[in-house]
């Protein structure tokens, strides 16, 4: 049984997050790296959203290598529907766990903005 918005609000979630979880979690099915360090993300409900990576690309963070466009463009959707990058593309991240940085579908949805329309429509 799905929980209601009121349930999530009672657990301390803000309204936007409560509405998201009450409406059902989304899975990422496709991602495209844009030239301005944003990502165009398509979710399993057909919705297309824009996620701005620029605030995360700070020196000293795990995302710092992605400030180089050639690294940023290596984005993919992993087998858990997260947006991911392999730090070293020659290393298998299933064998070397710390070779990968990723973003969760929930965070990507909540921190992105709708692009309007539904893909394929």
Helix/strand/pairing category: alpha+beta
CATH superfamily: NE0471-like N-terminal domain
Report Rg: 16 Å
The main sheet comes to: 4 strands, antiparallel
- Which of globular, elongated, flat, extended, rod-shaped describes the shape? globular
Percent of residues in helices comes to 10-25%
The overall strand count is: 7
Helix count, DSSP H or I runs of 4 or more residues = 4
Give the oligomeric state.
Answer: single chain
Strand order across the largest sheet: 1-2-3-7
Q: Strand portion, in percent? A: 25-35%
Our measurement of the CA-to-CA distance between the termini, rounded to an integer number of angstroms, reads 30 Å
Integer tally of domains? 1
CATH class: Alpha Beta
Q: Any idea of the CATH topology? A: NE0471 N-terminal domain-like
Mean pLDDT: 90
CATH architecture: 2-Layer Sandwich
Describe what this molecule looks like in 3D.
The protein is of the alpha+beta class. It has one domain (27-118): NE0471 N-terminal domain-like (2-Layer Sandwich). The chain has helices at 5-10, 15-23, 69-72, 105-110; strands at residues 28-33, 38-43, 47-52, 76-77, 83-86, 100-103, 113-118. It has four helices and seven strands, in the order ααβββαβββαβ. It has a four-stranded antiparallel beta sheet. The chain is globular and about 45 Å long.
């Amino acid at each position: 049984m799905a929980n209601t918005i009121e349930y999530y609000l009672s657990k301390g979630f803000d309204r936007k997050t409560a509405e998201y979880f009450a409406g059902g979690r989304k899975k990422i099915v496709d991602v495209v790296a844009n030239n301005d360090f944003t990502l165009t993300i398509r979710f399993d409900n057909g919705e297309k959203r824009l996620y701005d990576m620029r605030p995360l690309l700070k020196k000293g963070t795990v995302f710092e290598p992605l400030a180089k466009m050639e690294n940023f463009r290596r984005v993919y959707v992993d087998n858990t529907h997260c947006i991911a990058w392999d730090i070293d593309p020659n290393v298998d991240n299933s064998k070397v766990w710390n070779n990968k940085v990723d973003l969760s579908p929930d965070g990507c949805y909540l921190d992105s903005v709708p692009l309007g329309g539904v893909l394929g429509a």
